[in-house]
Hints:
- There is one protein chain.
- The protein is mainly alpha-helical.
- The chain folds into two domains: 1-94 and 101-111, Rna Polymerase Sigma Factor, Chain: A, CATH 1.10.1740; 114-196, Winged helix-like DNA-binding domain superfamily/Winged helix DNA-binding domain (Arc Repressor Mutant, subunit A, Orthogonal Bundle), CATH 1.10.10.10.
- It is built from nine helices and two strands.
- Strand 1 (101-102) and strand 2 (108-109) form a beta hairpin.
Amino acid sequence: xxxxxxxxxxxxxxxxxxxxxxxxxxxxxxxxxxxxxxxxxxxxxxxxxxxxxxxxxxxxxxxxxxxxxxxxxxxxxxxxxxxxxxxxxxxxxxxxxxxxxxxxxxxxxxxxxxxxxxxxxxxxxxxxxxxxxxxxxxxxxxxxxxxxxxxxxxxxxxxxxxxxxxxxxxxxxxxxxxxxxxxxxxxxxxxxxxxx
Length: 196
């Protein structure tokens, strides 16, 4: 059985009042939801708040979920909306780590270097690229940042982003292209680091 079908069964059971089924959905997606929210906010506390609010919204809106889109697509839409709502309330400087592996409890876990062949220079260059990319992403508007993270980090398809943000597919493609161009413009002075 596919994950999509598994999710639909859990949703149907939860809609029927099975609290365990809802808990299973939360358990299944809390880590992924948290990592997405953390990449958007750069803050453990803000990410935790956004995910908590998102799952409250999911629970309250569960009777309205029809299964026309994947549960994950719906969840991404709700998380994105919670993030944008929080941004409207609080405007503060944030940092983002695209390579952080953040635990569901909010603790940041160190990523292991896959190859022992990396030289200190290669590691330093990679770390510098990550810092520059983080700074560049923070300069983008929230929607562009969210789209780039959804597509390039979380691997969502155009259709999933379209459903998550409630935008036409063509709009997603053009806005994602504009986001890439805006990111390229921000990074134009650092291109030698990204040409590897």
